Amino acid sequence: MTTIPQRELRNNIGEILRRAEEGERFTITVAGRPVAELGPAAKAGRRGSAADLWRMLQENPVDPDWAEDLRRMREEDRANARDPWAD
């Protein structure tokens, strides 16, 4: 976590808020004492970066049988589907 004095926050608020939005967290100090923490707002659907996506794909490769499993499930759904208008 980055520590910044209150004066730096006041003088560079736009830049610091952009960095917080990107996920960086800050401890704000007054006269050298930590008084607050600043970080990204908790919100659903926050977008990750392309680097985050790449890292996730590297750590969790796609199952090579996934496409076949998906095709089979779709066929089963079609075979078991009932047309509500047919009755």
Main attributes?
87 residues, alpha+beta, YefM-like fold, three-stranded mixed sheet, 3 strands
List the helices and strands and how they pair.
Layout: E1 2-5, H1 6-11, H2 13-21, E2 26-30, E3 33-38, H3 50-59, H4 66-80
Query: Tell me, what's the shape?
Result: elongated
Radius of gyration from the alpha-carbon trace, in angstroms: 24 Å
Q: Beta-strand level of the residues, as a percent range?
A: 15-25%
**Sheet/helix structural class:** alpha+beta
Main β-sheet description = 3 strands, mixed
Instruction: Tally the helices.
Output: 4
Give the H and E element order. EHHEEHH
So, CATH architecture of the largest domain? Answer: 3-Layer(aba) Sandwich
In helices, the fraction of residues equals 40-55%
Count up the domains.
Answer: 2
- β-strand number: 3
Summarize this structure briefly.
The chain has 87 residues and is of the alpha+beta class. It has four helices and three strands; from the N terminus they run E-H-H-E-E-H-H.
What this model shows, in words?
With 87 residues, the chain is of the alpha+beta class. The chain is built from 4 helices and 3 strands. A 3-stranded mixed beta sheet has the order 1-2-3. The chain is elongated and about 75 Å long.
